[in-house]
Amino acid sequence: LIWQDPIPARNSNYDVDAVKTKIADSGLSIQEMVETAWASASTFRHTDMRGGANGARIRLEPQKNWEVNKPNQLSKILNTLESIASETRASVADVIVLAGNVGIEKASGKSVPFTPGRGDATQEHTDVESFAVLEPEADGFRNYLKKNFTVTPEELMLDRAHLLGLTAPEMTVLVGGMRALGISSNDRGIFSENKGKLTNDFFKTLLDMSVKWEATGSNSYQATDRQSGEKVRRASRTDLVFGSNSQLRALAEVYAQSDNHEKFVTDFISAWNKVMNADRFDIN
Predict the structure, then answer these.
(1) CA 26 to CA 72: how far, in whole Å?
(2) 87-117 pLDDT, tens per residue?
(3) Cα→Cα distances 164→53, 94, 239, 263, Å
(4) For a FRET experiment, which of 4, 61, 71, 110 has its CA 20 to 30 Å from that of 40?
């Protein structure tokens, strides 16, 4: 489309398995790899087909300095991934997405499909003012809220899911999986003790009736054990809506079932791929 942003020719002629090995041995954590891939791909807007992982504009102005992308952490991660891209002749855009896939594979023990062929945009072909409007004011998937708005955080999460073309089940499983992998702008919503594992712990813990939730701020809640009185965990409105909204709670109950771990992982990988490939018009 005429308003879409130019991306140079793509290169898909490289050894994907060799790149995955270098990423796995790079020392990056699962949380760092998955969060960076999400930050790159989740800028996509289904409404005007802008944004997305193709072009790797997360390494350029203005995206590399967006607060939601944790600039200091991002700079370190990109240095590592850009080095791998240079060594293997893969595009940085491909390596970023592939790193997210490697993180999920490590966390789940399952294979995550990958299609190479993304290109790398340049700063010259990236209009800073035009891209500034893509900056997320909120991203419920990362439990990020830039400031309080008249619109609630959970409504802003729905808006983000709509822009990404996600269904309610896809939104639900992605939030649960991201929290399980330790992805949150703070410690809210991190319920799992199985660090680095893609589990349904978020949903199982969220539906625990042995605690009482109380507001400690406009977007912060504290859970207190009903018997001991101990403060056990924190959450945001975005987290708790999966227990308070009847439709989302029904989905959370499905994923919380002890015999549905396999479905949870399968659905997460499917929804993840949908976001990572949202701007791959050459394959969609």
Answers:
(1) 18
(2) 999 999 999 999 999 999 999 999 999 999 9
(3) 12, 19, 19, 22
(4) 110
CB count, 10 Å around CB of 71? Answer: 13
The count of C-alpha atoms lying within 13 angstroms of the C-alpha of 229, restricted to the half-sphere facing its C-beta, is 0
Rounded (10°) CA dihedral 105, 106, 108, 112:
0
Average pLDDT, integer, range 67-76: 97
3-state SS, residue 27 = coil
Considering the domain architecture, whether residues 120 and 148 belong to the same structural domain is answered as: no
Among 91, 115, 134, the domain boundary falls at 134
For the beta carbon of residue 258, count every other beta carbon within 10 angstroms.
7
Structural Rg of the chain based on CA atoms: 19
Domain boundaries, position 217: 138-270
Q: Decide if 275 is inside a domain.
A: no
Q: For residue 110, report the phi and psi dihedrals to the nearest 5 degrees.
A: -110, 155
* Extended strands (E) in the chain: 138-139, 144-145, 211-217, 220-225, 231-235
Structure-token match 């299609």, residue found: 115
Q: For 53, what's the count of Cα atoms within 13 Å in the CB-facing half-sphere?
A: 32
Q: Give the list of residues 6+ apart from residue 109 with CB closer than 8 angstroms, or none.
A: none
User: pLDDT tens across 182-211, in order?
Assistant: 999 988 999 998 989 999 999 999 999 999
Q: State the SS3 of 56-79.
A: CHHHCCCHHHCHHHCHHHHHHHHH
Residue 42 maps to a domain: yes
Residue 6: pLDDT band by 50, 70, 90 thresholds?
Answer: confident
